[in-house]
Design brief:
This protein is mostly helical. The protein has one domain: Mitochondrial carrier fold, CATH 1.50.40. 73% of the residues lie in helices and 0% in strands. It contains 13 helices and no strands. The two termini are 23 Å apart.
Length: 296
Amino acid sequence: MIDNDPRTAKFLGLSTVNQRSFREFACGWGAAFINVIITFPINKVMFRQMLHGVGTHTAFDQIKIEGVSFVYRGILPPLLQKTFSISIMFGMYDKSCQLLNTNFPHLHPKICIATAGLFAGSVEALLTPLERIQTLLQDNKYHLRYKNTFHAILSLRQFGMREYFRGLTPILIRNGPSNMMFFGLRTEIRDLMPRTENMLGNFLEDFISGAIIGAIISTIFYPVNVVKTRMQVQVSGPFPSFLTVFWAIYNERDRSVRRLFYGVHLNYTRAILSWGIINAAYELLKKMMPIEDDSK
């Protein structure tokens, strides 16, 4: 537990602004940690559907046949990637809003939210290598080729630094706009929902609002994730553009938009759970880490 006594903060040389910034990063990290542990198996089934264009039962059977020992194979990269990603998402968004409000006090709130969200999402893209390794470890054709996370990281070194950032374009396309939508909708939905003094009631309200937003955003950007997955399962060789890979997948799936959304129902189910947990856990952790200006 962090000591939030103002005297301790003064002794450590932490201003209220710095306390707030630290809290945003820390609460984002903690919320993501809780989420990954709970939702990783669901994400793995969805990944197989994205990659192979198969139904839920087929993907589930693949993982079932592989055995329990492989269920959490590849969890370290998403644990690292997601915890740092959500930490950056909330932390950099808050920091960006502070800077924009300080330097452009008359900026419209919605423009501030959109700009801060776009910036935070773009910074998150620095974690592409972790998402890349996660993709390789979840694909069953690499089970024998890569023993674990660190083995995969070392193995890609021979192909150069660029190999770690394969799939960066769809990640940028996804992260910035999705963050803009998340923080924009989060504010709107929060204002529409009744706030209670009961902790359980607040938790459920935060869960529901996060779940709604997550389901909407993850569905809209699902095809982008399909393209990202296809790009990132390739090891070495050329780096085809986002559009090249998109059209290749579209043609492979009989030019059917519907087949581009294979696995989307599991995706929005996971997103409902995932973003509900993240939003509710984030708000709960914030209440557990009060700072001096909370009452202002």
